[in-house]
Please model this.
Amino acid sequence: MKCLSPFEIEQYILSTPTSQPLEKVDHIAACAHCNLIYHALLEEQEEWSQALFEEKLPDSFTAQVMASIEFVELEKVTVPDRKRKNPKILKSLRIAMGAALLLIVLSAVILYSVPSLAETLRSLFVKNNMDIGLLRAQEFGLVEHPNIKVKDKGYTIKIDEAVADPTRVIIALQLFGPNGKHDRKRLVFADGNRIEVKDDQGKVVGELYDMGFTDDFYYMIVNFSEPLQTDQIRIEGHITELGSKRKNIPTLKGDWNFNFSMDMTEANKQTTSTPLRGSYTSPDGLTVTLKSLTHMVQGVRFEFDTKLSEEALSRSPGELWKQQGMKFHFENSAGEEIQSVNPRKSPSKSFVMSSSSIPGDKPGQMHWSYTFPTLPQDTPYTFVFDGYFVPEKDGSSVQFEPSKLKEHPIPFDFDGDELKLFDFTVESPPNTNSNEKEGSLHFSGKFRNEFMNSEWIFKDVAGKEWPLTGRGAYSPRGSGWKDGYIEIVESQSDNKKYFFQFRAAGLTKIPNQLQLIRTIVNRLYTNVDWSVPIMEASKKQ
Model:
């Protein structure tokens, strides 16, 4: 299993533990990189919780409670002559007085904590769901309450909160069953159910999806690949079926459609754009050109273009060049990391809210954008280019005898990638990636190049080929921005430990000889040297 992004790990933290695949749980526990991010995000969540939901009562709390008690008139109770010492009546009196005092104390606590309580009742602002973008939206008064309530066939859809700016839209959607309780699993956003975002011209600019943060409401969100250029958006829900045949949940047809508008005027006023200047060409033919930084209420968008030279493009023919990836980070004047993209170093501060890579009008040209939760707006910092990776044609290969790997492991050492092939088995369903038997090559080691988007095959002596799929876990390792690698790590399944495996569907017997061929390598380039100081303008351009 490959490493999780910080966003995926945050989802893991905020979701129900029992709903997580064991493979994911085991990977986070075993992977040093993911485990470090996991604990860093846990610590961050706790810091936000303490800041937003302070549990300590003020020093004046006791005085307020006593002042409240002073003006409370208790119901009169007739007490018999003390000489009779009726224990039952005395006990009843104590209970009545205790209940009254408890009610007063609870009332005082609730009155004191009205802001925190109110935020908790607003489902988007429950402390486990809070993020910095929502905080900013609340600060600028951008939280809207559309008060949507649609009822049909005994089921009710409610939307009490929505937040929007040019970066994203978030809404909290609840589904109540006939018994008045939340029915979290019954609404599935597929097979026709959808919630669209339209601009003021009626054009669909996005579709919300459920992040799954909570058990009692749908945390619906859409991140825009381009900042919205409109003063008003319309949210249109098309919901005509509850349940799912695919998930074995009985289906129910009905009409739960809804729509409402959201004003973007104030959010647009808080949006500032700063043009950036700077261009650099790497030794192997990639040109990077900075474009702009856009500060929005809920995030910061960073844009740039890249262009591969004709020679570089020839190494990535067809559609390969469109699968390239970038590595960079931002640092402050002290050289400390602020944000990063695709780092291998640990620890790192990599949190990308959304990203897009769109091919340009010419082959080899790409338009890039990344949206971060925050970047400095009034202090200088620096963009540092760390490298890039792009799939290229390859032919690295090694010949081996599968049945002898246990006694005589075979190395695969090419372009900085160092693997050791040490076993070959034939696996049967359900322990397969397909519905048939699979030949399985077990190996350990590390990759310098990116493993994602690489392609591998088996080839036998008769020339027959099998495309390969991966199975297992790997994790980034590194201390600097350019010296990292990807290490194959042990994973656990059915109480057994495994290293990574290449699986070939339909290979039902162990051949006498096989050739492992990497047809596509996702080559990593770090021989770059470029940084650009950034000082954003304080006013809208």
Remarks:
- The chain is about 20% helix and 40% strand.
- Residues 168 and 313 are 34 Å apart (CA to CA).
- The first helix runs from residue 6 to 14.
- The mean pLDDT is 80.
